[in-house]
Automatic annotation (TrEMBL):
The lineage of its organism: Eukaryota, Viridiplantae, Streptophyta, Embryophyta, Tracheophyta. This is Glycerate dehydrogenase. Residues 37-332 form the D-isomer specific 2-hydroxyacid dehydrogenase catalytic domain. The keyword Phosphoprotein does not apply. Keywords: Oxidoreductase.
Amino acid sequence: MAKPLQIEIHNPNGKYRVISTKPMPGTRWINLLIEQDCRLEVCTQKKTILSVEDIIALIGNKCDGVIGQLTEDWGETLFSALSRAGGKAFSNMAVGYNNVDVNAASKYGVAVGNTPGVLTETTAELAASLSLAAARRIVEADEFMRAGLYDGWLPHLFVGNLLKGQTVGVIGAGRIGSAYARMMILIDLDIAAYGKFLKANGEEPVTWKRATSMDEVLLEADVISLHPILDKTTYHLVNKERLSKMKKEAILINCSRGPVIDEVALVEHLRANPMFRVGLDVFEDEPHMKPGLAEMKNAVIVPHIASASKWTREGMATLAALNVLGKIKGYPVWSNPNSVEAFLDENSPPPAACPSIVNSKAIGLPISKL
Ligand SMILES: NC(=O)c1ccc[n+]([C@@H]2O[C@H](COP(=O)([O-])OP(=O)(O)OC[C@H]3O[C@@H](n4cnc5c(N)ncnc54)[C@H](O)[C@@H]3O)[C@@H](O)[C@H]2O)c1
């Protein structure tokens, strides 16, 4: 028999059994659950990605709700196991939920929570950081310094791209994509007001337009950042053909989900076009990279850290816990999942609502009047 997974138990006599498949940042989420009569079991096993079998073992015979992670495969098998254990609540600690079969969850009446509204700016900031790092070859230059190769200023040393006045393209201009676009204007004003300010200083105004097609973005933009959700329509959205349409010196950023880019085609493209640069937070076969990517000097690669600021990660943990708690308690669903400040204010109790349930309509949950 498989060895049981290590767990940490909070409030052992709590009435509702809630599992978190991972320890999560902060303590507020723990306190909110135990104050509301939950027995919380946090899996502390040193194993980065839990298998379906691991999670079935954690769920056991009685489980009211689970907080899970985007690395886990939440499909028919897990939702039927959760339902058999009497559970009706699951929340991803993420805004994206491409790892969740929402239809399977709905079939068993299980609510599926996610965590929008708390990671938009943090994720956009990483996309902006990768854009600048790729444009100015920061990682290559850092490696060069550490290797002791710097022996004096040279006119050609790590020459990169100037971003001022360049065209930024966003594919998937939702919450994060729009926040990224605002950041790349480098000032948080509306564009018209910023344009007036620039004009008063004798400069060209910044303009924006909604492209009529993806090709228009690919052909015109100097920096392209990908922010769509991952589904059948966005799988390999950036493929060999589309890469070939982009400018030879363009910068491509992906902080959405790895399979949005055909990574094999990307490696080929990077190899053939040394002036084309990419900044990647996510990978097609995470945690692995396609062969050759790690050797490409024109790629800046980071391990899926776009939402990794302390405030955001603690907030995500809180929202995920409150999604599960709210469903257990029979609370309605918050009317605007993008406006979640009331749940994040540490100085007052959170509203009696689930912050964001993606299948609320399918399972007939009422909307909060708060
Ligand atoms: N790297 C990370 O750590 C990290 C963190 C947060 C979110 N994400 C990813 O970013 C994605 C976007 O998050 P969001 O909160 O901005 O979501 P959102 O729903 O607000 O925006 C997604 C946008 O994608 C667009 N879209 C959908 N299908 C498309 C298609 N076929 N072609 C072009 N655009 C399409 C939608 O119209 C929408 O504007 C999430 O789904 C998640 O997968 C990643």
